[in-house]
Design a protein that fits this description.
Helices cover 30% and strands 23% of the residues. It has 263 residues and is an alpha+beta fold. Strands 3-9-8-7-6-5-4 form a 7-stranded antiparallel sheet, with helices on both faces.
Length: 263
């Protein structure tokens, strides 16, 4: 068993590498950035996904789908693929994190120039669910970090959570959500985190689509190319990128998976 920033990891292997070597220095840095002080659990929930666990792993590594599938993100200026950021992948390909930085002035100008819908007729009756503060002082509004094979650490604005993937069959996956705050949070920050928690999870304004889209893909694969489907985008490499319009992290997942199964 090993621990980093309060997260505890275990392995059945006697020859498992030490945790920081397994994660790589970039991913370790991504964890320490988010969990930079003692954390506490605010709540937990579990949802059942109608798909193989690997489809959800792909979902968390895919930066393309967020601003396409989750219209809440772009409508309310939380995350667009054009925002500054990057993808950081360890040498094995299995562990990664992506970041998006929010420049409020630049986003305002983009939305107005392009006539995007949040500057037209869509508003929240209660905007407190998306109101946030830059608690890390680095303008990173979204960071999604994955640890192969089954853990995700998220920071979306001020909502922080660990997600754990639990395979329950070929076509069934349980996804556990552990919502976090910090021991030194004041009452206002705790309230902010709880409100923003409505953006993610089984019924989240952002991520409820993830709960069903994996099932769509699972069903579609049965009728394509003898239970498989391949769409090539962006080459073969699984290396870090200084931008987010890339599928490098997905290729990294399969690079790691194939290495483990000897394919």
């Amino acid at each position: 068993m090993s621990e980093i920033c309060g997260l505890v990891f275990g392995s059945f292997r006697d020859d498992a590498p030490d945790l920081e070597s397994y994660l790589g220095p970039q991913v370790v840095g991504g964890i320490r950035r988010v969990l930079n002080r003692p954390a506490r659990i605010l709540g937990r929930s579990t949802q059942v996904l109608p798909n193989n666990w690997k489809l959800y792993s792909e979902n968390t590594k895919d930066t393309y789908h967020a601003s396409i599938l989750h219209s809440f993100l772009t409508t309310f200026r939380i995350n667009r693929l054009s925002m500054p950021g990057g993808i950081y992948i360890d040498d094995t390909g299995g562990n990664h994190f992506s970041q998006a930085k929010l420049d409020y002035a630049a986003e305002d100008a983009d939305y107005k120039r392009e006539g995007l819908r949040s500057d037209t007729d869509l508003r929240l009756e209660d905007p407190s669910v998306i109101e946030s503060v830059d608690e890390y002082g680095d303008s990173v509004s979204v960071q999604i970090l994955t640890i192969f094979p089954s853990m995700i650490l998220q920071q979306i604005r001020n909502t922080i959570a660990v997600r754990v993937i639990r395979p329950r069959g070929v076509e069934k996956t349980e996804l556990d959500w552990i919502h976090l705050g910090f021991a030194d949070d004041d009452e206002a920050m705790t309230e902010r985190r709880l409100r923003q928690g409505n953006m993610v999870g089984a019924a989240g304004y952002i991520s409820m689509e993830d709960g069903c889209v994996g099932g769509f893909v699972q069903r579609a694969l049965r009728f394509n190319d003898a239970d498989s489907g391949v769409v090539m985008m962006g080459g073969y490499d699984a290396a870090s990128q200084p931008f987010r319009s890339s599928e490098a992290a997905i290729r990294g997942f399969w690079k790691k998976y194939r290495a483990l199964i000897g394919d």
